[in-house]
Amino acid sequence: MELIYRQHAVKRMHERCITEEEVEHAIASGNAIESYPDDTPYPSTLLLGHAGTKAIHVVYADDITEDIRIIIAVYEPDPKIWHDDLKTRR
Questions:
Q1: Distance between alpha carbon 45 and the CA centroid of its chain, in Å?
Q2: Which pLDDT value is given to residue 1?
Q3: How many domains does the chain have?
Q4: Averaged over 81-86, what is the pLDDT?
Q5: What confidence tens digit (pLDDT) does each residue in 39-78 have?
Q6: What is the pTM of this model?
Q7: In a 3-state reduction of DSSP, which class is residue 2?
Q8: What is the pLDDT of residue 54?
Q9: Buried (b) or exposed (e) across 18-50, using 16+ Cβ within 10 A?
Q10: 52 lies in a domain?
């Protein structure tokens, strides 16, 4: 599946010093922790993955007809918002 990065995601990745390689590692190692089935134009998912010791949340949507994964947002989970498991919101 090809990865397509939204402009917003690329901008925030740059600001947060998160590389595409780290995003790919997070996706490969990650698990979905929330789903947003009503998002349009495609349902989206929040994934928690890791790149080395860095925890990364990736919000993505899959366009299965085109076989692409659209990366919408990428960030390191904020412990003020997420419990220690980084899967559950406070």
A1: 8
A2: 86
A3: 1
A4: 95
A5: 999 999 999 999 999 999 999 999 999 999 999 999 999 9
A6: 0.93
A7: strand
A8: 94
A9: beeebbebbbeebeebeeeeeeeebebbbbbbe
A10: yes
pLDDT in tens, 11-48: 999 999 999 999 999 999 999 999 999 999 999 999 99
Q: For the domain that residue 15 is a member of, what is the CATH number?
A: 3.30.2310
Largest CA distance in the chain: 38
User: In what side-by-side order are the strands of the sheet with 54-63?
Assistant: 2-5, 68-75, 54-63, 44-51, 31-36
Residue 84 lies in a domain: no
Residue 15 and residue 75: Cα distance in Å, rounded? Answer: 10
Length of the chain: 90
Taking CB atoms within 8 Å and a gap of at least 24, the contacts of 7-14 are 8/72, 8/73, 9/71, 9/72, 9/73, 9/74, 12/73, 12/74, 12/75, 13/74
